[in-house]
Structures are given as C-alpha cells and as structure tokens.
Amino acid sequence: MVVTPRYAAPVPEVLEVESYRELAERVVGSRIRAAEADRYAAARLVAPRAFAQAAVGRRVVGTGRRGKLLWLETDGVRLGLRFGMTGVLLLDGEAGIEGLFYGPHGYRDEWVRASLTLDDGRRLILHDPRRLGRVEIDPSLEGLGPDVIGLSRADFDAALAVRGEGPAVKARLLDQSMVAGIGNLLADEMLFRAGIDPRTPVGRLDVARRARLYRALGQTIRTLRRRGGSHTGDHMMARHPDGRCPRDGTSLAVATVGGRTTYWCPTHQR
Ligand SMILES: [Zn+2]
Asked: Is the pTM of this model over 0.85?
C-alpha cells in the first residue's frame, strides 16, 4: 500500500514539502537496504549510482527541511530531496494505514525517479512526472534564508531591510536567500490578506504595513496548512483572467512581478 503525504498540491510549495517531511519521519530508525535514482533525479550527482553508494547501509536518524529542500539525516551522509514542479514523496509497503495515492497526477511506476528501500521492506519514493525532482548528497544550505514556517519577527524584519526603495515586496518575498520557502501562491495570498500591492517597493512599507504583512504571513501558513496546502488560499478561486476579489468584487489585476504571474486586488491591496 502506498501511503500519501497529508496533502499534495499541483505544484509543491513549502507546505507540501513539510507534509512530505512528516511522512519521511516514519522511516526514522530504519536502515537503507537499497537505493536507486534515475538519470533525471541524479542530475546533480556525478552518476546515478552515486546515490546508492552514499545511501545503502546508512540508518535514517532524522529529517530536516529548509524551504522546499527536504533531507533525510543518516548516520553518515545527508540525503537531499527536491521536488521540482510535480514531485511528491510517497511511502510504499506500510501496512495498516489508509490512503492510496490520489495526487494530482496519479501514480505510475515509470514516474518513480528515485527510491530508498528500508530494511523492513518499506520504500520511500520520489514520484515525479515532470522529471525536475532531484536527489542530492549533503545538499548545500548556502543561499537559503531562514525558513518561512515559524519565521520570527526579527528574521522577517531583517529579510525586508533595504537601502532606499529596494525591490517590489513580492520579489523580496520570493527571494529564497531572504526567506526560504515562500512560493508564488503563498506570496500572493499573504499580500492579499495584508492588503498590500505586490509591486510596492519594500523600502516604502511603513511600520504598520510591515506588521500587517508579518501577521498575514503567519495566518497564511497556519490557515493553508489546516485547509490542505498552498493552493487553498482565499484568493485562489479568483486566479484567472475574469477573477474577482472575494472580499470586494473588484476585478483582479494580473501582471508579472518578481518574475512570476501575480494576481492582486487594486481596491484593497494598496
Ligand atoms: Zn479586494
């Protein structure tokens, strides 16, 4: 039986990867008996077999995550997992747990890009139709800011600190070196909740608006985790060309901000 993570959105953002990490916690204490990665998943390694060479015989002693990078801590190396646009982590062979994999893309054996077989027969699987998921050995955390889940006010303020006007606030939120884990949907949702125009230069946000954005960030994380993932935001249903703001009925504006398609309400986001 394949055990699915708590939720799997069409595109994995930090909330989905955190649910993958919770799933991976189930294999802590097990030893890795076999490991495989195809040439896509192993694209960052010297060769696909390097994954098995690093992993086999190791015991999983913990899990970790920073932004969208997940890793298994072992008694030797750290095994990193990245999920690209369509990757999901699955756990196969666990008896007594309900839930087949009904993710957004369905399951196919040919989409298994990498796997770890544990000494008890269970199998942890990187399933990824689009082939952008990657395995890594001792992945670097360089260039990753503090994680968005549980981000402190001090770290948030540091991430927004600029000289002069700085970039658009949306671009700054997406900058993984400032805060790790804010993807496109989370950024739009927190700006929607905070009532801030995503194009506003960071340096123009006054104290009150920074406080509002920090509160909205925490609310967004908590609410969307409860609802089931990064695609469950309040403005989500209106993310299309004819979309209207669920608060005030205004037609949403759409533009590329920070390199990503951005929807916002010109009435209550200023
Ligand atoms: Zn509005």
From this structure: yes
